[in-house]
Design brief:
Number of strands: 9
Number of helices: 11
CATH topology of the largest domain: Rossmann fold
CATH superfamily of the largest domain: HUPs
Strand order of the largest sheet: 1-4-3-2-5-6
Structural class: alpha/beta
Bound molecules: pantoate
Helix content: 40-55%
């Protein structure tokens, strides 16, 4: 496995792979890798000749400076894990390598047809614009056949699919296929997240109420309306000391708009567990 920090070097490696007719799978990450990331990388390794994993804490997608500063970083540990599961290249650039100072201050504005105005997008204005800022650069640099994203960040996945479909119309990303991969959970049910590292043992136990309530809500959906289930989930999580729901919305999986039916629906939740912001979802 080779660690690359410069765009030009990455592009040379990609060009050599393309020349040999090798397929390329890309797994974009912000590092602090866990079993959820490992599942994406294993899939990319088994589907493609070459697997590129980017490890880059992307400043343009953070609208909270403290969150950016506290984001866990450990490239050495990440690289060890990636080499163990067969990644071919790790691309770990600096912010200056990815962005000019103008791009950092005044990023290009994408149009996501409103998908970025709900849920996470409403709570974190500019977040998805920042995500696509970096993901589109990574697509350009690595020219992947397939790119892998976790379904835990369901809205992110929907927005990236939208961006690729739009760009495919303009011919930018060739036949790139976006592959969504299922949420990986601890045995307890807690969805794996790099942010879990910031939870104390007590908070981790408290956070279990999130996945447990989402699981229960599948049963509740057999008897109650969407509005009733939304309220029941929100109340049940808020009733646990130490948890505070930011939003829980049941939306259509394709449009991300509120729905009054459970068909093609997903329930997306964001909860503060102490100071740590956790997200999870459940498909009905
Ligand atoms: O999901 C993430 O970790 C990030 O949003 C991504 C896709 C790597 C872009 O920085």
């Amino acid at each position: 496995m080779q660690i690359i920090t410069k765009k030009e070097e990455l592009q040379l490696c990609v060009a050599a792979c393309k020349k040999e007719g090798k397929s390329i799978g890309l797994v974009p990450t912000m590092g602090a890798l866990h079993e959820g990331h490992a599942s994406l990388v294993r899939r990319a390794v088994s589907d493609n000749d070459v697997c590129i994993v980017s490890v880059f804490v992307n400043p343009t997608q953070f609208n909270n400076k403290e969150d950016l500063a506290l984001y866990p970083r450990d490239l050495e540990r990440d690289a060890k894990m990636l080499s163990g599961i067969g990644a071919t290249y790790v691309f770990a650039p600096t912010p200056e390598e990815m962005y000019t100072s103008e791009e950092m201050e005044k990023p290009f504005e994408f149009d996501f047809g409103g998908l970025d105005k709900v849920m996470e997008g409403k709570m974190r204005p500019g977040h998805f614009n920042g995500v696509v800022q970096v993901v589109s650069r990574l697509f350009y640099l690595t020219q992947p056949d397939k790119a892998y994203f976790g379904e835990k960040d369901f809205q992110q996945l929907a927005i990236i699919r939208f961006m690729v479909e739009r760009s495919a119309l303009a011919g930018s990303f060739g036949n790139l296929r976006i592959v969504g991969c299922p949420i990986v959970r601890e045995e307890s049910g807690l969805a794996l997240s790099s942010r879990n590292e910031r939870l104390s043992a007590e908070e981790k136990a408290t956070a279990l109420a999130i996945s447990r309530t989402l699981r229960d809500s599948v049963e509740w959906s057999e008897k109650g309306s969407v509005k009733e289930v939304e309220k029941r989930v929100t109340d049940a999580i808020n009733a646990v000391e130490g948890l505070e729901v930011e939003y829980y919305e049941i939306v259509d999986k394709t449009t991300l708009l509120p729905t009054d039916s459970f068909s093609n629906a997903i329930g997306c939740v964001t909860v503060y567990c102490g100071k740590v912001r956790l997200i999870d979802n459940i498909q009905y």
